[in-house]
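re: ur question from yesterday

yeah so i grabbed the chain u mentioned. its 295 aa long if i counted rite. heres the sequnce exactly as i have it in my notes:
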Amino acid sequence: MRKSLKFGMFLVCMTLPILLTTACGQQDRLRSNSVPPADNSPVKTEAVTDAGGTTWVPLTQVAHSLGLRVQETEDRANLGFSDVMFTVQPSQRHAVSFGRPISLPQAPVRENGQVYMTMDSVSALIQSKARLDSRTGALAFDRITPAGSNVPPQTGTSRYGILGVAENRDEMVAYAKQYLGVPYEFGAPPYEQSKTFDCSSYTRHVFKKFGQDLPRLARDQAKEGVSVSRSELQVGDLIFFTVPGRFKSDNIAGHVGIYIGDGKFIHTWGSPGVQISPLDSGYWSDVIISMRRVR
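ran it thru and got these structure tokens back, copy pasting raw so excuse formatting
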């Protein structure tokens, strides 16, 4: 039987000062050269305490506090920046955190059209201790260091396909450009099904054409291949970007694109979807964390 919060509960309505920089709700308006200023306005939310004394918080509040998108369907909810980092299912303890399956201490529940999670389950999901200040209502997190973040990158070439990357860089750029204008969709299903991309599904789709099966998430793609510097950057190399302020650690890749030469890269983000942006000027030049070559 699905657990309900309706009986024996009381609501604690708070205006929460957000401790972490957030652009939630504004990201669809992003363009290639700029990002809107962070929204530091207070956020109205309702923390719920059930009859047993357990506190539940809306998943939308967790997303907002981390500056992430949230996408809810009938059977699941996804959180992330430009690709999905976390997935939970109402009434199910099974969840996905940074691409890895985990089991939550308590299953999320859906009440009054919102998904709620306990603080323990939020901590397990984001791999960091979550705290709700009883005086101010501020939702805060310890430093987030995802499990597996120290796994060494792949350096081999055992996954070559028929075309290959190194020998077909110009062809890769031409193929990537065929998708200019294809809409961006957070958590996009495979292109063949949805005709949309998010940042990492796009790079994965392009590289698959040339024999490389990249992982699904930008964070995991950033472990592939070998590191290169800006002066060594070649057409077809992957460029990874941080998401400042989201995790208190700017070493987690939250966005990815493909270098196409002439100081430009191709990626998908907001509107108009797949687009070309300058690498050495504007917003993206300030948030590069790594560049990698998949050979």
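noticed a couple things. Residues 7-44, 150-163 have pLDDT under 50 and may be disordered. also Residues 228 and 292 are 6 Å apart (CA to CA).
anyway ttyl
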